[in-house]
């Protein structure tokens, strides 16, 4: 005996782009069964205040209760719902009452007469309404929970590549995420671009990502930071010249170098203490070290170069393994040199490239 049909479909997640994309596909599938275009209705559920929540719920109620003009089934999509989030609007008493009204409407839906689709992002899954939806609706959580953000973002790239008949070589997807950041739209577009470049059925190599993917996460000074971290003086000087030739400023370069140096200082300390070691798969032992030391990073729980354990382990291993890991003394000296360079550009604001070139020679020329 088959299970009874669900009253409605509920698609949710932390990322509005991913949820909206899946929702659009589901709506198109439902709409394909309803030839009368007047029997398809899309209602905007995005609300900046309680008044807009009330308007969205009322429009949705009217749409669900409307009978198809020529008979048959109707399709109603309440899209881009954001008032289920842990926000000022979402927590308001009036909003919570309106959500109760929404639940009553959904309980009365006859799926044979009206196919209802709701897409919501983000949302607070601790509330009673999402829990009720999970038990009652055709429920889909897209991208997993926010706690697994790195894995979810990698999953977006891998899924898109598979859809295009391509795949990522080891390390390629991690490098792409390091360069573009947590922008799902850009991840999808970059995957499409890289798949086209690699060719149908081919593998996207790490070299492709390094050559073609923009450095959105760290700006156009990514190359200078990469070159400096590799210990290659000539490459560093060339990258600095390219940066300043394009009208760049010294301060973001110094900031990028300091962020990386802070991470390497922490890696070096763990390696020297025997808590971790650099291996072919990155930094081995990081989870064990995190269990011992992460609680000591009070006030630095967000992703930051001040806390090694907030970083992607693969990225940290890649960062430390670009060249022979410098000694702790060398890394401390580098940090001091970066401070000196910052003070120097204040005194010589018209000689920023020369200041950083001198700093690079002092750090890498020995």
Overview of the molecule:
With 366 residues, the protein is an alpha/beta fold. The chain folds into three domains: 8-144, Rossmann fold; 149-212, Helicase, Ruva Protein, domain 3 (Orthogonal Bundle), CATH 1.10.8; 220-364, Zinc Finger, Delta Prime, domain 3 (Up-down Bundle). Helix content is 55%, strand content 11%. The chain has helices spanning 16-31, 50-65, 88-91, 93-107, 128-136, 149-163, 172-180, 184-198, 206-212, 222-230, 233-245, 250-272, 286-293, 313-321, 328-347, 352-364; strands at 8-13, 40-44, 74-81, 114-120, 138-142, 167-168, 203-204, 277-279, 282-284. Strands 2-3-4-1-5 form a five-stranded parallel β-sheet, sandwiched between helices. A two-stranded parallel ribbon has the order 6-7. A two-stranded antiparallel sheet has the order 8-9.
In short:
The chain is an alpha/beta fold and 366 residues long. It has helices at residues 16-31, 50-65, 88-91, 93-107, 128-136, 149-163, 172-180, 184-198, 206-212, 222-230, 233-245, 250-272, 286-293, 313-321, 328-347, 352-364; strands at residues 8-13, 40-44, 74-81, 114-120, 138-142, 167-168, 203-204, 277-279, 282-284.
CATH topology of the largest domain: Zinc Finger, Delta Prime, domain 3
Order of the strands making up the biggest sheet:
2-3-4-1-5
Number of helices: 16
- Helix/sheet category: alpha/beta
* Overall number of structural domains: 3
The largest pleated sheet is described as: 5 strands, parallel
The proportion of residues forming helix, as a percent range, comes to: 40-55%
Shape: elongated
The CATH class label of the largest domain is Mainly Alpha
Distance between the termini: 77 Å
For this structure, the quaternary state is: single chain
Count all strands and give the number.
9
Order of helices and strands: EHEHEHHEHEHEHHEHHHHEEHHHH
Poorly predicted ranges? none
Mean pLDDT: 85
Amount of beta strand:
5-15%
CATH architecture of the largest domain: Up-down Bundle
How large is the radius of gyration?
26 Å
């Amino acid at each position: 005996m088959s299970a009874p049909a669900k009253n409605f479909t509920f698609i949710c997640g932390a990322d509005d782009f991913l949820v909206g994309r899946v929702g659009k596909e589901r709506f198109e599938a439902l709409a394909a069964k309803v030839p009368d275009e007047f029997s398809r209705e899309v209602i905007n559920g995005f609300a900046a205040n309680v008044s807009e929540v009330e308007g969205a719920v009322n429009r949705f109620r009217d749409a669900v209760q409307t009978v198809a003009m020529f008979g048959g089934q109707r399709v109603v999509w309440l899209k881009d719902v954001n008032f289920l989030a842990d926000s000022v609007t979402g927590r308001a008493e009036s909003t919570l009452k309106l959500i109760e009204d929404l639940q009553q409407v959904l309980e009365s839906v006859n799926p044979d007469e009206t196919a209802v689709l709701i897409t919501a992002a983000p949302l607070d899954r601790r509330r009673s309404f999402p829990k009720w939806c999970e038990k009652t609706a055709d429920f889909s959580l897209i991208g997993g929970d926010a706690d697994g953000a790195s894995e979810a973002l990698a999953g977006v790239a891998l899924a898109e590549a598979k859809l295009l008949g391509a795949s990522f070589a080891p390390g390629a997807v991690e490098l792409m995420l390091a360069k573009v950041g947590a922008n799902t739209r850009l991840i999808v577009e970059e995957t499409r671009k890289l798949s086209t470049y690699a060719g149908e059925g081919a593998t996207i190599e790490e070299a492709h990502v390094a050559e073609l993917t923009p450095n959105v996460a760290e700006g156009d000074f990514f190359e200078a930071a990469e070159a400096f971290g590799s210990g290659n003086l000539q490459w560093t000087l060339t990258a600095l010249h390219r940066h300043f030739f394009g009208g760049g400023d010294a301060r973001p370069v110094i900031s990028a170098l300091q962020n990386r140096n802070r991470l390497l200082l922490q890696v070096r300390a763990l390696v020297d203490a025997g808590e971790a070691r650099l291996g072919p798969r990155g930094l081995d032992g990081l989870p064990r070290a995190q269990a011992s030391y992460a609680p000591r990073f009070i006030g630095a729980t967000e992703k930051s170069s001040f806390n090694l354990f907030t970083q992607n382990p693969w990225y940290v291993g890649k960062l430390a393994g670009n060249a022979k890991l410098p000694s702790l003394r060398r890394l401390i000296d580098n940090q001091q040199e970066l401070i000196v360079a910052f003070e120097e550009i204040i005194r010589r604001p018209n000689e920023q490239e020369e200041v950083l070139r001198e700093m690079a020679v002092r750090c890498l020329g020995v």
